Amino acid sequence: MKISEVLNCSFSAWYPRFKDYTIKSQIIPLPQEFIDYLLADQVVLPEGTLAMSASDSDTEDNRNTENVIDWATEDLLTPVAEPPNFPEFETLLKNTIKRLGGQVFPKLNWSAPKDATWISFDRTLKCTCTSDVYLLLKSSDFISHDLTQPFKHCCDDENLKNETNVKYELVLRKWQELNPAYEFRCFVKDNILIGISQRHNDMYYRFIPENRKEIVSDIQAFFYHIVKDNFPDKNYCFDVYRRCQGKLLLLDFNPFGQVTDGLLYTWEELEGDELFQAEDLQQHVPELRCVESPSGVQSNPYGAYAFPKDFIDISSGDDPSKLVQLLQSKVREQNGECSSDDETTEYEGT
Ligand SMILES: Nc1ncnc2c1ncn2[C@@H]1O[C@H](COP(=O)(O)OP(=O)(O)OP(=O)(O)O)[C@@H](O)[C@H]1O
Ligand SMILES: [Mg+2]
């Protein structure tokens, strides 16, 4: 995999060519101070967001009720560092979110913050305001990877990797309710579609094996008519969404190599000769790999990024009693009380 191949998969490189076949999106160049903010250690939301939380919780009810825990206490809301301030960028973001219908999906040049969904209220990447975007981007290792080592797996000279300048961009895409069973990743080697895999391989979707032939034929046609001659490289992967028979939507391009998840293929298979023999070219029908039965599911690839259920219940408000227990234990802790079984019994599932 080469630096040029990675650059050709960055969003602004492919979007203008494939605009008519993908989700409406807006590319916003990232100011350096915003990149610095994303790379800084602390999570401090830009000005405005904390003030809003404070006034939201400062309702009549809260102020007049004794023994109610006050979220607007200084301890909880005083930031540990100066909040950043990007007025122009912020305005651009707000206007773009509005223009795209009020709900957007964020990503940088290559990656979305898929590993950070645990931090959002509905555990998706749906953003309706700028602070949603900031929080997801700041909480994601995939975003840091885009910013710090986009060419890590490239075979080019180390100097070239360090010297190659990347113009960083924030991509906001109109939010779409996508059915994961309709998403596929396609692998192209030497300009030949050598394999297709269901995109979410931690699930069994009966629909896929039942419609295998039609799915393959639609994807093959999409590849030959739309993608093949419009993409500048010979080796790459692309993701598609098959809304219904004959209606496909392009979702993304990814480099052909280890940096991209091969899903139900191994990279040895994809890079080797077994999936495709050149003499088959005329009759070649790519294989579609999918989970064939409920027992064939693989583990969730982002499982390692998941947080304990108690944390999720607390942050989402799904179980208010856990939040109360947590705060009570904090108060006890501050008062010097200590219970030996705090850790194991306080937040146990219901
Ligand atoms: N506009 C959108 N609205 C809602 N969900 C979306 C949207 N675009 C993408 N998704 C969902 O998010 C997933 C990840 O998106 P995308 O492929 O752009 O991220 P990525 O970081 O490039 O992933 P990968 O590293 O696997 O290539 C998609 O598989 C799809 O399910
Ligand atoms: Mg991608």
Distance between the termini: 49 Å
Q: How many E-type strands?
A: 8
Strand order in space, largest sheet: 7-6-4-5-8
Q: Helical element count?
A: 16
Radius of gyration: 24 Å
- Mean pLDDT score, rounded? 83
Total domain modules: 3
* Ligand inventory: adenosine-5'-triphosphate, magnesium ion
Low-confidence stretches: 50-69, 337-350
Structural class by helix and strand composition? alpha+beta
Fold and architecture overview:
The protein has 350 residues and is an alpha+beta fold. The chain has helices spanning 3-8, 11-18, 32-39, 49-57, 60-64, 74-77, 87-99, 130-138, 141-148, 158-163, 207-210, 212-227, 267-271, 309-316, 320-334, 342-345; strands spanning 25-29, 104-107, 169-174, 183-189, 192-198, 236-244, 247-255, 287-289. The chain folds into three domains: 3-174, no CATH class; 190-296, no CATH class; 308-342, no CATH class. It has 16 helices and eight strands. The protein has a five-stranded mixed sheet with strand order 7-6-4-5-8. The model is unreliable at 50-69 and 337-350 (pLDDT under 50). Magnesium ion (MG) is lined by residues 252, 254.
